[in-house]
Amino acid sequence: MKRSVVFLLPSLWGGGSERVFLNLCKHLDKNKFDVTLCLLKKEGEFLSHIGSNPSFQIHDLGVSRVRYSILPIVKYLRKVKPDVVISTLGHLNAILSAISFVIPKKVKLIGRESNIVSMSNHNKITLLLYRYFYKNFDKVVVQSNDMEVDLKKVVKNFKENQIVKINNPVDLDSIVKAKDTANALLPKDKINLISVGSLTHQKGYDILLKSFARFHNKNKYHITILGRGKLLDELNKLAIKENVDKNVSFIGFKPNPYEYIAQSSIFISSSRFEGFPNVVLEALTCDVPVIANSYKGGIDEILNKPILGKIIDLKKSDVFESTCEEILSRDLPKGCLSKEINQMYGIAAIVKKYEMLILNI
After folding, report:
1. CATH of region 172-343, choose from 3.40.50.720, 3.40.50.2000, 3.40.190.10, 3.40.1280.10
2. Using CA atoms, how far apart are residues 293 and 314, in angstroms rounded to an integer?
3. What are the tens digits of pLDDT across the range 27-55?
4. C-alpha triplet 274, 277, 283: angle, nearest 5°
5. Backbone torsions φ then ψ of 139, nearest 5 degrees
6. Alpha helices in the chain (DSSP H)
């Protein structure tokens, strides 16, 4: 008999968690699972990634904010009574854990944590919900060792084996298809560095710009940053102040970032912290090596071989520049980076771990 699974998500605006849930909805074995993607509001760029005839159901709660979602979530879950609900993103997880006592007991709840909780921009109410209710989940999924250590500091008294580590999946075939384009998307006469992420404090683009500004040979490089966010004006002003505005392009959100990444020489992950940086896996799947800031959140688990890239203190401009030169001087066999990543994080292996979790909960 099939197990019914509901993936609960605020929306499908572009982000790592949204991409992970879409991949899981698409790839879970439909002979074993009835899958529904339940959105608080059916909106966002990734709706276009679903296709006209998806292998899973989509349910729209029609709610504009997480804070208004309590009653619609409870009504829906009481009506449908799925076997398992898997939610993600901290504020939604916190709400779900707090209302777990009014959800039918037969429904097993799994919270997928998406970030380093203590470093995230959660308000006091959300953190209180974490401390007092997060242990109500039947299972909590983390993606990295750093996430587990941090979560145990925030939430006391987890049961033994309540936390499960499952890395994020990478869909190699989809990325390979998406990255091929005949169009020249990046400056042809420059060494192209690229980064992808929301324009927020967490992503550390201010660190990147300030360090890059002190390169001795910065004019042979160009940095392209894909993403949107509230810091766009501030970062543009910083680029002008640091005299790198002609060397840096902010080009907004792109539904297909892979065609841009594939044309670059090095991917830069400048974050202050992460949960588990999907986009680093995706860059490596495009066979682009990575230079990452030294941050908590699984980057040391990903870049665990010199062939994949290097973790540095990005604020040290001389180290940053010399690391770029070092990586550019390498002559790696075509496809070697994507092969490494597919072996460790290929979607088939990660989906199997989720399937086992759902079947055994």
Report:
1. 3.40.50.2000
2. 5
3. 999 999 999 999 999 999 899 889 888 99
4. 150
5. -145, 150
6. 16-27, 70-80, 90-98, 124-133, 145-154, 172-179, 205-212, 232-241, 258-261, 278-285, 299-302, 317-328, 336-345, 347-360
Facing residues of 292 across strands?
Answer: 269, 311
| Residue range 112-116: mean pLDDT, rounded | 93
The DSSP H or E segment spanning 7 is strand 3-9
In tens, the pLDDT along 212-245 reads: 999 999 999 999 999 999 999 999 999 999 999 9
* Spatial contact of 182 and 233, defined as CB atoms under 8 Å apart: no
What is the C-alpha end-to-end distance of the chain, expressed in Å? 15
| CA–CA gap between residue 21 and residue 12 (Å, rounded) | 10
pTM of this structure: 0.88
The two three-digit tokens of residue 339, written as one number: 């092969």
